[in-house]
Amino acid sequence: MTDMAIQILCAATIIVEFIIGSAANGFIALVNIMDWVKRRKVSSVDQILTALAISRINMLWSALIITLVSSLHPDLEVAVKMVRLKNNTWIIGNHFSIWLATILSIFYFLKIANFSNHIFLYLKWRLKKVVSVTLLLSLVFLFVNILGMNIHIDVWSGTLQRNFSYSSTSKNYTQFYRFIFLINTMFTLIPFTVSLIIFTLLIFSLWTHLKNMRYNVKGTRNSSTVAHINALQTVVTFLLFYTGFFLTLATQVWASQLLEENLLFFTAVIITFPSVHSCVLILRNSKLRQASLLVLWWLRCQSKEVDSFVP
């Protein structure tokens, strides 16, 4: 395939992923908000899912706008105000998208896993507090990330004003973005490590549960086993998409020239995580899955009614 064909394919992929991601996350938020209005209460997991969906919509729009600006107006890439706005917007959207997904994994882990450890039981009994503290702790990381990023932008801006030659500016620009990707990758590694630990502990909990099955009532062990497997499937899916997302960020640290030449490709890979993973969450959540089936049934009925009026 020619470079032009690849660029067109990547652009089409971005558009499709953007539409799917916006629709899936919008659906999650809409269903949970409607349920909250109807019942006047919302569960903890629905609160996390709603916040996650809203943050991912923001992330998708940010990625799309940044890509459009970078592709259509590359001269704005070196404007300090534009650089600051673009990076801060991306940091905030990416932070909440990743950390809320990690908090969802923590929620499933503490709800489903079984350990006799006193620390685990303490955290399990105070699940809502654990979620709140984790979210507050993530805000500290967000503050440090934004602070470090803006300090780096200020240093880069001062260096840029002192160097007027094209070669110096180009080299400075490459080093600047390489350090930005390094910062983002470092802060992304923290929730990735937490999710990996949760996955390992869930496997150990399931193994322990299966080992002691003969001491349990059949119905109890079956339901517990299914709950463990469902949680593991959710976390595994999250980690698979997360790994691709993380490796893409890590690649950008050492191949900033490659990023400049393949901006659309990297964007397509990055937005796969908040787009497709949200579809998986809909399929794994019984309420969202039932609501999606109702929507599909309604659309099918509407299409039949339209066809019946067509001569």
Automatic annotation (TrEMBL):
One of its GO terms (molecular function) is G protein-coupled receptor activity. This is Taste receptor type 2. It is a multi-pass membrane protein. GO terms for cellular component: membrane. It comes from Phodopus roborovskii (Roborovski's desert hamster). The chain crosses the membrane at residues 6-28, 48-70, 90-110, 130-153, 179-208, 229-251, 263-283. InterPro entries: TAS2R. Keywords: G-protein coupled receptor, Glycoprotein, Membrane, Receptor, Sensory transduction, Taste, Transducer, Transmembrane, Transmembrane helix. Its main location: membrane. The gene is Tas2r125. The keyword Transmembrane applies. It comes from the Eukaryota. Belongs to the G-protein coupled receptor T2R family.
